[in-house]
Amino acid sequence: MRIPASIKVIGCLGLIFLTLNSCSNNPDKYYKALTQEEYQKYTAIDTLLENKKNLITECKSPLPYPVFTTLVKKIGTGNVSYFKLDSDAYLENDSIVIAYASAFKSDESGDMQKDGLWLYAEFYDNENKKGNWFYSISDSGIRFSVDSLPPNYKPENLPTKEGIYLLKNEKIEMISAEQSEEKFSSLKRDGFYFIPNTGRLFKRYNINTIQ
Q: What's the domain of life for this entry (predicted)?
């Protein structure tokens, strides 16, 4: 069957849009570039790190709605560039930035939990849910039920070591030493999970990746 030229064009444009849309949502982009003019509008509150290559400061954004944020000034050979960390990214030490995924829960204590977080995760993958004969769209992801406790759960000493834990045969087992969003997505196992300490997924980056 011949496809009319007009349909071919529309279909190709649709495919290009889908590709760009998926690529623009980059989980590793935990910062944004600033111009020198934008950088200079912030007021420095505290210096977090200063060396020959980096100046990292805690700053207050311009009025009328000031918020605290972390700015990075990268000093190269004959070149200076400026960046702003996302609101959920923090300097962990002299070389590492820790970037948190979106919080599962926010309460009176804020986005960070004190004793970890239980949740039930259901993985789904619906191929071609919104597509047709000309192109397909894969709708996949994870449904979370936060603060869902396992049936007949008996309180015990919950783990505090970094990682992702799954309840198996009424026992909590670490199934990943990496507590990242990407690792969680790759597990593809429905069940009750425990995220220790802050109850947040995160990833660490060397500050040299900011460029």
A: Bacteria
Phi-psi region of 78 (alpha: psi -120 to 50; beta: other; left: phi over 0): left
Q: What is the pLDDT of residue 29?
A: 82
Kindly list the averaged pLDDT for each block of 10 residues, start to end, along the chain of length 211.
33 30 50 95 94 94 86 92 95 94 78 86 70 53 81 80 91 93 90 92 93 88
Q: Answer whether the bond into residue 64 is a cis peptide, omega within 30°.
A: yes
What whole-number distance in Å separates Cα of residue 202 and Cα of residue 142?
A: 17
Q: State which residues form the domain around 187.
A: 1-25+93-201
Write down the H helix ranges in the chain.
Answer: 5-24, 36-39, 181-187
Environment class of residue 159 by beta-carbon count within 10 Å: exposed (0-12), middle (13-18) or buried (19+)?
middle
Number of structural domains, the chain?
Answer: 2
Beta bridge partners of 44: 59
